[in-house]
Amino acid sequence: MRTDMRGPNRPRSPLTGQEADMSRKTLWVAAASVLVGIIVLGLKALAWWVTGSVALLSDALESIINVAASGAALIALQVSSRPADDNHQFGHHKAEYISAVIEGVLVVIAALTIMREAYNGFQNPTLPDQPVKGMLLNGAATVVNVVWYVILMRVGRAYRSPALIADAKHLMSDVVTSAAVLAGFVLVPVTGWPQLDPLLAGLVALNVLWTGWGMMKESVGGLMDAAPPPDVVARIKELVSIHAAGAIEAHDLRTRHAGRITFVEFHLVVPGAMTVAAAHEICDRIESAFEQDMDDAIITIHVEPEGEAKHRGVVVL
């Protein structure tokens, strides 16, 4: 955890050993995502090639976006892992949100492309060739996606990486899409109704479109400095209340997320006769509590004399 508690002019520290290790792990996972995406794309493209199915083509088109999005996530993670500098004094963590927004836009483009293919297929419907082979290939791709989704979500949540979490959510959308396509694909040769194939592609497009909207909405919240979840804010207040003994109150608490970093700032009111050294000791105690309880938090505390008390906010126990 990096903590800034002495004001905005304090020099920024380089990445700690733990942070550097986290960055390396997320980068390796992001790089592996690109490789996994290429493998899945190859399987789905082969499934479409042997069957000529519009539904399988729509599934393959979504996988192209997966590869592009994984590449964008990798670049974003490389940028976000850079330490703070003179031009970006709060770090580069928001680069991950930009990646997630880009991924959401790509998903929407994929949905519109699939809709076009579904419309063309509905105008000229044909029964797929070699449906069993196509199902096996697409099924294998789906299994790979499920396994990688679990890994991505676990790493993304552990390291609070919006880019990896967005990539994982997109993969799960792909899994749902593939499962629906496979289920419907069985019915095409059974019913002999070729229009069912492009109809499935249209349903795929709607699911992809909904997923892209959700991804962009969540990422824009991060870019707009949305507050952390209520349980995190409550824990922050609890830590300040417990470990600020000697102070009078803490008010004007503000928090925001930037990637895996949580920024916390508040005013700490102390007795007017308290020495600077004593106030500094309270700040150090709060810092130590945050370091033990919360990862990746940057804290700024403005110390004020008791005349500035507002008698609201965090009550010191």
From TrEMBL:
Concerning NCBIfam families, the annotation shows:
CDF
Q: Tell me which Pfam families the record gives.
A: Cation_efflux, ZT_dimer
- The Cation efflux protein transmembrane domain covers 32-224
Transmembrane domains' residue ranges: 27-50, 56-77, 97-115, 135-155, 175-193
Q: GO molecular function, one example?
A: cadmium ion transmembrane transporter activity
Similarity comment: Belongs to the cation diffusion facilitator (CDF) transporter (TC 2.A.4) family.
- Name assigned to this protein: Cation diffusion facilitator family transporter
Q: Which UniProt keywords apply?
A: Membrane, Transmembrane, Transmembrane helix, Transport
Q: What is the lineage of its organism?
A: Bacteria, Pseudomonadati, Pseudomonadota, Alphaproteobacteria, Hyphomicrobiales
Q: In what residue span(s) does the Cation efflux protein cytoplasmic domain sit?
A: 228-306
Membrane topology (UniProt)? Multi-pass membrane protein
From what organism does this protein derive? Xanthobacter autotrophicus (strain ATCC BAA-1158 / Py2)
Q: Can you say where in the cell this protein is located? A: Membrane
Q: A single GO CC term, please?
A: plasma membrane
Would the keyword Transmembrane helix be found if you checked this record's keyword annotation?
yes
The UniProt entry's GO biological process terms, in alphabetical order, are: intracellular zinc ion homeostasis
Q: Which InterPro entries match?
A: Cation_efflux, Cation_efflux_CTD, Cation_efflux_CTD_sf, Cation_efflux_TM, Cation_efflux_TMD_sf, CDF_Transporter
